[in-house]
Amino acid sequence: MTTSCQEIQELLPWIATQTASPAERRQVFAHIAVCATCRRELVEVVALARRVESATEALPGPARAVDHLALLEAAGLPPLVVELVRGARSLVREGVPVSLGLPWVAPLTVHV
Amino acid sequence: MDELYARLGSRLSRFALSLLGDRDAAQDVVQETFLAAWQGAGSYQGGSSVSTWLLGICRNKVRDQLRRRPAAIEPLEEARGLVSPGSGEETVEFWACFRQMDANDQELIQLVFHQGLSLQEVAEVLGIPVGTVKSRTFYARRRLRQLLRGGDSE
């Protein structure tokens, strides 16, 4: 059974990004060995992939770090704990353990 | 969570920014994605990679933002505001063309060519069959190529 050019060209993006399965690679390479049209199309798709990649890398990355206190609140930690952490942040240096004064709670290491 | 953010924050940020064209909205989406991941960690079943799972959450947050936002400004003007300072005209031109595409097509192009997801992973993130991913991606990349060549119709 021959594979149509349309079927092969639909797989080319994953060949270009090297995420195609071994079976997909075998299917595509067997076809483009004998099809100049699809070989040219692969070159076009690789060029497009590179352009998308470089243009997206030109976008600025994240401007701010994740808000850890918002995460704690969202996780449902008691408000008292969240407030203690908020207060501790203003007092401690990076990585220094902070005791909450609660015997059953191990000292927290706050990353500010 | 710190390690996850360090590893994937940039990737998700660029994904959101490419689809929203607005830095503040993209930052909100990334924040919401990690919050949702933290809250829904129990629902992660390990069937897909963590990055694919997060992309699925991020994609839904982007869609929520798009529904809430007013119509985009002129594509070229938006593209100039989008890219890092010092980016070349070719990059600006790329984004001006990209932003003219339908939101579904933009999403596919990003997932396939920048996020580097496999066919199966794209199908999983979008919740559509593999065959549909292949044919939609085929037409999306043809559309992008046409826009980059200066064409406006099929």
What would your notes on this structure say?
The complex is a heterodimer of chains A (112) and B (154). In chain A, strands 1-2 form a two-stranded antiparallel sheet. Chain A has five helices and two strands. Chain A is mainly alpha-helical and 112 residues long. The longest helix of chain A has 22 residues, at 36-57. Chain A starts with a helix and ends with a strand. Chain A is elongated, with a radius of gyration of 27 Å. Chain B has helices at residues 2-20, 23-39, 50-68, 75-82, 89-98, 103-114, 119-126, 130-148. Chain B is mostly helical and 154 residues long. In chain B, α2 (23-39) packs across α3, α3 (50-68) packs across α7 (119-126) and α4 packs across α5. Chain B contains eight helices and no strands. The mean pLDDT of chain B is 86. Chain B starts with a helix and ends in a 6-residue tail after the last helix. Chain A binds chain B through residues 6, 9-11, 13-14, 16-17, 19-21, 24, 44-45, 48-49, 51-68, 70-71, 74-75, 111, and chain B through 1-2, 5, 9-10, 13-14, 17-18, 23, 27, 30-31, 34-35, 38-39, 82-84, 87, 91, 94-95, 98, 109-110, 112-114, 116-119, 134-135, 137-138, 141, 144-145, 148.
Quick summary:
The complex is a heterodimer of chains A (112) and B (154). Chain A is mainly α and 112 residues long.
Global outline of chain B? globular
According to DSSP, the number of beta strands of chain A is: 2
Mean pLDDT of chain A equals 75
Distance between the termini of chain A: 63 Å
Summarize this structure as a short list of keywords or feature phrases:
heterodimer; A: mainly alpha; two-stranded antiparallel sheet; B: 154 residues; mainly alpha; 73% helix; globular
